[in-house]
Design goal:
Length: 284
């Protein structure tokens, strides 16, 4: 009985320490966003306001939404925001379609050199994406897609990570389902869209969120692909205009950063459960 009593305080202490560590990690991860949000809501016209007055800048005395309205009115961020929505939406749709189609034969079909082909696809994960910029730019220029939405999207929709994630999801579907469908006369196309894709919706959601975050925050490739058409630049590229060459307003920059972060956070929170289920399927 005494041993059990000693064990309970130890378990409680261990749980308390675990929660404290997790709380510290949470604060470390959330702190930059909270500080940026506080600066974006600060009334810069109030006397004695400074972003460098820490920790007072975390708790602004006077709140306002003027910084957000000023950013949209002065720097036309609404246009860049719409460009980001179009580019991200096309990239997500293309990535899900290509990954779902390419992963099916690698998971369920038999053909020569299948494992070698899959290994070659996975090996591209270790290569930096920047090595493709010159080749992609020259190719897009030759097919007259440079400076268009499609010029940004097409080189991004075929990813080794997406193919790997969907292949793992297809391997997790019971073989009895596909065998029963084949006996009933279903074709590979019907098996893919009526069995594989519906049962792999968590993995599709996880892939969509990964693609959303990467595409929404992408800067270098959209800037290169849209040099001939700067009016089509996404929000990540347009944000650079918030910082002038000699003078910049940190309150406007913070407001623009919050505008960039909020849509991704909303989507992630809304689809968090499916996202975690999709990652579990990939690990298995």
């Amino acid at each position: 009985m005494s041993a059990r009593r000693r064990f309970r305080p130890r378990r409680a202490l261990s749980s308390l320490l675990s929660y404290l560590v997790l709380l510290l990690i949470l604060l470390f991860a959330v702190f930059p966003f909270l500080w940026t949000l506080a600066i974006s809501l600060t009334n810069k016209a109030a006397p004695g306001v400074s972003i460098y007055d820490f920790p007072a800048s975390l708790f602004p005395r006077s709140l306002t939404l003027y910084n957000f309205f000023n950013v949209f009115r002065t720097f036309h961020l609404a246009r860049y925001f719409l460009n980001s929505v179009v580019i991200t939406g096309l990239t997500i749709a293309g990535t899900l379609l290509v990954s779902a189609l390419a992963a099916y034969p690698l998971a369920r079909m038999r053909f020569p050199l299948k494992n070698f082909l899959f290994a070659a696809i996975i090996s591209t994960l270790v290569l930096p994406s920047e090595i493709n910029f010159i080749v992609n730019t020259l190719t897009l220029k030759r097919v007259h897609l440079l400076g268009t939405y499609w010029g940004v999207v097409l080189p991004l929709i075929s990813t080794a990570f997406g193919i790997f994630l969907m292949r793992q999801a297809y391997l997790g579907v019971p073989a009895a389902l596909t065998e029963a469908a084949i006996i009933d006369g279903a074709t590979d196309w019907q098996i893919l869209w009526r069995i594989m894709v519906p049962l792999s919706s968590p993995s599709l959601t996880a892939l969509g969120i990964f693609t959303l975050v990467n595409t929404w925050n992408s800067y270098f490739w959209p800037m290169v692909a849209l040099l001939p058409a700067p009016r089509l630049a996404p929000l990540a590229v347009g944000m650079l205009k918030l910082k002038g060459q000699f003078v910049y307003d940190p309150f406007n920059i913070a407001a623009g950063a919050v505008i960039m972060m909020v849509p991704v956070l909303i989507v992630f929170v809304a689809a968090q459960r499916l996202f975690m289920r999709g990652l579990e399927g990939a690990v298995k």
